[in-house]
Description:
By secondary structure, the chain is an alpha/beta fold. It is built from eight helices and eight strands, in the order H-E-H-E-H-E-H-E-H-E-H-E-H-E-H-E. It has helices at residues 3-24, 41-50, 60-69, 88-94, 105-118, 141-154, 173-189, 204-209; strands at residues 31-35, 54-57, 76-79, 98-102, 122-128, 158-165, 195-198, 214-217. It has an eight-stranded parallel β-sheet with strand order 7-6-5-4-3-2-1-8. The structure holds pyridoxal-5'-phosphate. Pyridoxal-5'-phosphate is lined by residues 35, 37, 58, 80, 166, 200-202, 216-220.
Amino acid sequence: xxxxxxxxxxxxxIRRVETARLKVSPHHIVKIVAISKYSxxxxxxxxxxxxxxxxxxxxxxxxxxxSKELEELPLEWHFVGNLQKNxxxxxxxxxxxxxxxxxxxxxxQELQKKLQARDMTLNALLQINSAKEESKxxxxxEVACGMYARIQKECxxxxxxxxxxxxAHTQDKEIIKKSFETTYTIYKQLQGATICSMGMSEDFxxxxxxxxxxxxxxxxMFNK
Length: 224
Ligand SMILES: *Cc1c(COP(=O)(O)O)cnc(C)c1O
C-alpha cells in the first residue's frame, strides 16, 4: 500500500473504534495500542507517521529489539505477553509503559523483589482468564478482586492500573460477550482502576461496547 492508501485504510479502523465508543457514551474514550508482533520497525514507523504512538509486543526479545531500533521516536511500549520469570530482568531493562499480563501471584512476588532491588516501579494490568480457558493465562474471575487487592498491598513497586483479558476463543458472539462482561464487572469493582484492556482485531467493537477503554489491535492496524 502507498502511504495515502494506508491512511485511508487506517481511517476506517479508527472510524470503527469511534462508532463503537460513541454507542457507550460521548465521554467514553478508547486508546488503541498497536500490537506490532507481526510487523517490522519500518511498518511501525509508517503507522507512527499517521499518528499512532502506543505499541505492544508479546515477546521480551522483540520488544527489546524494536524499541531499541525505534528509540529516536517518542513511542510508548507495552508488553502484552506471558512473562517468564527468567525474562523479568530483560523486561525491566526496557522499562515499558505498561505490563499488560500480570497473571500469577508468584510472578507478582518475583517482580516485586526485582523492582525493589532496582528501586523502580512498573505499571501493570492484572490478566483475567474470563472464559476460564485451559489454554489461557490469568486469574480466574472468582479470585481476581482479592488478588488485585493483595498484590496492591504486598507488592508496592507494582502499580496496578486495571485489568486485561483476551475474549473467549469461539465464534459464538454471545460467549465472547459474556467473557468481556465478566472482565468489565471485575474492573468496576476495583478501587482506583482506570484501564480495562480488552478487544483485538476480531472482536474490538464488541469489547468496546462492553466497556473496554483500551484495545490491542495487531493484524488490523498493520493490514495483515
Ligand atoms: C497478538 C495479540 C493481540 C493482537 O492480536 P490481533 O488479533 O492481531 O489484533 C492482542 N493481545 C495480545 C495479548 C496478543 O498476543
